[in-house]
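Supplementary material to the annual report.
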Amino acid sequence: MEKLGRILMVEDDPKDVELSMTALEDYNLVNEVVVASDGEEALDYLFCRGRFQDRSSDNPAVILLDLKLPKVDGLEVLKEIKSDAKLKMIPVVVLTSSKEEKDMVTSYKLGVNAYVVKPVDFHEFVNAIKELGVFWALINQPPPGSVRK
Amino acid sequence: MRGDRPWHHFCPGLAPKKPAKRLYLAAKMLSNANAGHEITATNWQSWLSRSPFLRFIFAGTCVAIALGLALLSEHYNFHNVEVPLFLFAVALTAWYAGSGPAALGVALSIVLFDFFFVPPIYSLTVTVGEIPYFIVFISFACLVAWFSAVRRRVERELLQARDHLQMEVAERTQQASLLGLTHDSIFVRDMDFFITYWNKGAQELYGWSAQEALGQHSQELLRTEYPTALEEIRTELVRAGRWEGELRRRTAGGTEVVVASRWSLRRDEQGRPTAILETSNDVTDRKRREQEIETLNRALAAGSKELETTNKELEAFAYSVSHDLRAPLRHMAGYAELLQKRVSSLMDEKSHRYMAMILESAKRMGNLIDDLLAFSRIGRAETQKTQVNLEQLVKEAVSEVKQEASGRDIVWRIGALPVCYGDRSMLRLVFINLLSNAVKFTRPRPRAEIEIGCAEGSRGVVEVFVKDNGAGFDMKYAGKLFGVFQRLHQTESFEGTGIGLATVQRIIHRHGGNVRAEAVVDHGATFYFSIPGA
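Predicted assembly:
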């Protein structure tokens, strides 16, 4: 657990971002979180385009992806990631409000690594985020080429 | 009239279309008189023709009579009548008995003439000077005989031709009357579209009688609307000899009829088109029904498209509810929690309770949304129907519900249940909901009794009941029982979102069944549902 993986959080709702950050604070994971507020920005980050063209070309250790996003929605982002040779190894966790079975099935078909429905209850929510952060950023061995501190 | 007009048959072309009654009767009488005469002559001739021997006797008799008459006239001093008399006998023989007997008649006449009338009388000697006289007589007799024979043959042939014609006409008449019998409309028109034949079917279909229609221009009479240009139809008709299609026409009464029409072209010996025979039947009703079906189909297609759109909208709505309504709830709960954490030490008991209420309400709202979404999903999901063993299904549901009711004293009675036909997972949800309700509403009882069984249903239908000894309800509100978010008890006594029975009803309705409930306040409730049997 000496190295922390970088987390790319794709989330358009600043309140959700804030609450998630609160949860991650406890494990000092916050500094390694990059937030993209819509699908386009997420893709810009991953493909080092636009305002991210100067970033180091390492991949994040995990992507926490909301499905309902402005511009390019989560499923499209997932599709782009999983069809790109360099990006498809990055673990992607869908983190969504939706319990829609259709979304879940589509996500798994596109190759998502985990599908988590955000609980309404705050404690459950915090626990879910914490566990996700800890597992993917600390416990899990990310694929080669990921950022580690 | 058709059967008794033999006089027409000799000259059908001259037969007047509508003979005046009197003229017709006169002609008939005449023809009858002729017929009587003919019958006598014909019998005599056929009697003669039957036996060659009789014919020769006839020849002899004729000559003998001629001889008798000649001798008699000689006796009364009428001279030189013997030759015409013998010639008359020969002619008569040739006429009625044929050429053989006529030859005999000629021979006999010469011999008898020579014997009785040529000097020396009563001798057969012939002087050289008389030979030319005999030759002339023989030639003349032969000529008469030959004329008679030819005349006779021609007449016989004529009679035969007449008989043949008569038969043919009779046959044709019969065929024509058969055509008249058919219900299909048949009419014939010449190449200029003037009607020349019109049967009973045509009269029934279009309303004009044959008398009214014959000689009329068919286009002007029927006001036909063709599916394509008339020229194209004509070309096709001349090329293939036939044409088929649907035509719109007007009847005598002015109503429009649609007919399925078949045309056949008639040609003369040189192959020139002469007439068109048209058979048609009325398809107006069929056509109207087809149109009605088409209209209904279009309406149905539009309806199902609308339904599809509505369904899609509903799905989009549910999706948006699922996402967008849950997020603010999560935020409310989250920030309330964070606030509580920060100011916990400063809050008094009341503030703590308020905070707890906020969190509880958020949670309840979350549950409501989840239930509502589940309910809407049941309406949209495809049912996958199979044979379902209800007894096994109930046992599974009971064991699941029992987990929620640990520590309670509940007597479960499960009766015999049949196999039914339905969607297993949906029916499971029905039992879970009904049994959970039974467990929930028997909570005040020290000993709960829950019975599941099968009531007698009508043929092919299974009626299942779930009975409890719980709180029951007032039958006054039975109508509200299965509505979405309808609750007959206060949340403080019995928790719940009020969606369970609505879900039950929706599932049973999707199986083509019915739900109902009977209850008495504080004396338990019984819920019945019916579904198709296996």
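DSSP finds five helices and five strands in chain A.
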